[in-house]
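Researcher: Please predict.
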Amino acid sequence: MIVLQLVLFCILFTLMVKIAVGGNPLNGLYFYPKPVQEKVFALGMTDRETVARKRKQFMIPFVLVMLSALVLIIGLWNGVRRFWPAYWQVLLFLEVMNWYDGICIDRLWVGHSRFWIIPGTEDIPFVQTWPQVLKKRGILTLIWIAGAAIVAGIVAVLF
């Protein structure tokens, strides 16, 4: 059952990203490295304020939806009521999401889809290298160790 839940959680993650960018990678410019963003600004395709607004419009609902889904899966679907069992399940979900994002989203989807290439920036690398993925995901692995405690606390209080 937990494998199914992890798959559904990652599908939700992917759908939220797809909905946010729609049919235009410029809608997700905040995901790109700074050199790509700067080139897009220089080309006049968008501006910093628009990107900041779109980032906020994505991140707030994204965090709320993913957090709510996680709390509901652990507390309601799995029936977990105590902190430590919730902690270990939350940590598993956050770590799977973390590595899924780095490998499946960043390296596979973004790295192998022409959709993510913004015209005029083809010469600027925008896909993270494997060392960059490993470093970023390793750091986030440590952060999620603490973050899982917060979510597990929410589960324990609500359920």
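Model: The chain has a mean pLDDT of 97.
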